[in-house]
Design brief:
alpha+beta; Aspartate Aminotransferase, domain 1; 6-stranded antiparallel sheet; about 35% strand
Length: about 110
């Protein structure tokens, strides 16, 4: 299974009323963007991906279940992977999704070329 469909549905339901929301396949799972900026994703291994500011990145890694997303062995600042067991309840998932949604919504909309 490329991603957890139950997690994807929970993310979809939480973000449904968000202005500028788009859903697309990425990172071996599904990602949600707001005005073209990544907010969250259901990762191929059942984990959650959250986009955050580079300033918040380090402090978010101190939270339970959080680790940096990596390209090879290099951490990608601003991308946090949240282990599946850390978002089993709706309140925990909502906390993480608020972070990703709020960060993406704070950026100016991307224009399509």
């Amino acid at each position: 299974m490329p991603y957890d469909p139950k997690l994807a549905e929970r993310i979809r339901a939480f973000l449904a009323a968000t202005d500028g929301l788009d859903e697309k396949k990425m990172f071996g799972g599904i990602g949600w963007t707001i005005h073209g900026h990544m907010a969250a994703g259901a990762h191929h291994d059942g984990h959650l991906i959250i986009r955050c500011s580079k300033e918040d990145f380090v402090s978010l890694l101190d939270l339970p279940g959080a680790r940096p997303m990596k390209r090879g062995e290099t951490p990608m600042r601003g991308w946090v992977v949240v282990e599946a067991q850390a978002v089993t309840d709706d309140a925990s998932l909502a906390e993480w999704l608020h972070r990703g949604r709020d960060y993406a919504a704070s950026l100016p909309p991307k224009t399509k070329a």
